Amino acid sequence: MLYNPGMKPSKAAFVAFLLVACPLLLQAQSSKFGPPEAMLRDAKHKEPKSGVQIGPGNTIAIQSGVGTPTAINVLSFGKNGALLAAGKDFGRVVVWDIASKKLLCALNTGQGIVHAVAISPDGQTLATAGEGDSFKLKLWRLPDGKLIKTFDSSTGFIHSLAFGPTGEWVVFAENFGPTRVLDLATGKVLLELKETPFPVLSTDGSVLMTANKAEFTIWKTSDWSKLRSLPRSPAYAVPLAVDPETDRFVYSYAGAFSLAKLSTGELLPGNQPSPLPKYNLSAGGFAAIDTNAPNLMFGHSDGTLWMWDIKTGKTCTSEVLYSESGVLSPDGTLLAGAKDNSILAQGQSPDGVLLWDTRRLVQNCRFANDVAPTKPSTLH
After folding, report:
1. Which end of the chain is more exposed for a tag (fewer CB within 10 A), N or C?
2. Cα torsion 4, 7, 11, 13: sign
3. Domain of 160, in residue numbers
């Protein structure tokens, strides 16, 4: 999935929010996911000094824009979930091989707080972008991590990024700026949409949904023709996932999640008696429809991963992960969430990326009788 919000405040503001909100969340929600199948760790390396420090009397000193070494801002799977990339603070990006659960490579991108990462469909190219280095978009060769090419951005840091289905182009959105589709071979801009900050690419890459002030627009990526436009109702709804195969898309409004028909924009019925953690645009998050189990939705909001059975209304959540990043693999078999305990929960557990097999998650959350099982996981 493509979406990774751009209009986010400073990391200091997010940290301050978590310090207040997370203890309350821990009391209000029990951990129902059960233990993950694996945790992926970064390699040992010299870490820069954190911009968040605890002082005398548990006072907190925050340096705006400095970041924290263990923070993971964004996660992105490669095709079929074979590789997973994580964008961190201080320009660090790491890539893991999922089958072996080993670190494939680690890069010093020089891009400051990294907000966007993506892996090409053939697994041979990594794209990264962040707040530093004049907001450049960079392409790196995998697995050796050598820089291939650099593209300039213009209006602000890139906050969302995804490769097309053949890896020939990328779609990205700039903070408070346009959404662009860039041909990687020629550098030519294939599509530019001003004041359109929320692009969402379907899992198969066949359609792109965008949102401006007035409407949602669906684009056919094979020739960039406009398929249709739908009223953006409610006015400030944020699109999060689109699935042309099941004719549905997901959006968030006022912290809640809604499911609508892609062809008409009609709101679809969805039972949600157990409220999901609220979505906060400034704190980040995602939502994804599992194409192998159409009644299942996965997501991450309010620092928590969750699973929702749309048909029955059952929900299941993880513990609070003190993180703003999570992702579902394209084939729906793996759910990943970053765990960062560097300052907010010192000594509780190591930081890294937790992985859940969604088949087992369905069984552990007692969804097995309500939804079709997903494909076998590659996590063995």
Report:
1. C
2. negative
3. 11-38+59-364
